[in-house]
Amino acid sequence: MIVRVKFMKRLFIVALVFVFWATITEATPAARKKTTPFGKPAATRQAKKPQEPYKAYIVVEANTGKVIEGENVDAKRPPASITKLMVACIVMEKLATGAVKLTDQIIVSKNASKIGGSQVYLKEGETFTLEELMKAMMIHSANDAAYAISEHVAGSIDDMVRLMNDKAKMLGMNNTEYHSVHGLPPAKGEKEDLTSCNDLAILAREVLKYPKIIEWSGTKTDTFRNGTFVLSNTNKLLTKFPGTDGLKTGYYHETGFNIVATAKKGELRFIAVVMGGPSGKIRDDVAMEKLKKAFSQYKILNIVKKGEVIDKDVFLVDGKYRKIKGVADKDFLYPMFVDKKGDIKKEILLPEKIKGEIREKQKLGEIVIKLDDQIIGKVDIVSPMYVPNANLFTRFIRRLGLNI
Predict the structure, then answer these.
(1) Rounded to whole angstroms, how far apart are CA atoms 62 and 179?
(2) Which domains are seen in the chain, by residue range?
């Protein structure tokens, strides 16, 4: 009986609380709209905004530089470790001139051994070849390797940064400024590296001239320090997207996830640059989506073939031979939208006659290629052979108007 009384009292109290709450909410409809049945303000339960998949991107056809699509392509953003692409560019130029060799022995400095972030844990006094350190930098994105390389190639970090900025200016990378050789976040009082999607596409086209860059940046795994350290490529598109064979990724918290990726199928190669992704997966997904779209929508046309004979005679006033047909100096490939209706036209520009001897590969004229009346390229027409001057008697007879 006592238990039953206690139960009834509790039930009565609960009923009073419920009536009191219902009375208050009924009396204040404005308050009722702003609260949930649990008394929690509705504003605090707003849906979370979806993350932006990128801050900027661009897709470019590698051979011609034709921009396929893009967004915020000139926005300045920190490239993070993609900075190392310019270091690689400087190294390849030095190799081409013979200023350095891949077999050069590089002694690790104290400063190089202290660089943090992604690294191969170089120790002061250790010795590695330039090629070993280039692999560490391009495959594993090793900051200490980039530092050691720069000291060797340029003499100092300041001199390497100067070379990097000079090269950027020469290439027309107008939104780019370098302050480091590795792309790490700047320390207090330092300036951050800045570039843009468009500038990185320009740089990618430049470094693609060097097959070694593709060899290194397309390597999924390798080893370092006599096989005791595994180099793992930071570019996961190498295994995710068929045809991908380079180039570089970059990340730190303030700038997000960046990538410069290139893929080739047949004669068609595209470069995709994505900057400011919220995660590595989202960044990679965007790059793959853009590359897949580009390959599906474009085909490559061989408009002019190297060595192609131009069916138009050039008369040689003084030559041993009376006339000559020129040939195209190089191939001209162009990406065409598969549904494009416009016609490509070739205009042959050649003089009627040329005086003097003709050297092999001497320019005679040019082919102007147009699409919808817009010039999209030019190819030199050159002589396929050496044509010496005719003897004096022959030239004299020709002056008289006799055709010999």
Answers:
(1) 27
(2) 2-43 (no CATH), 56-298 (3.40.710.10), 305-399 (2.60.410.10)
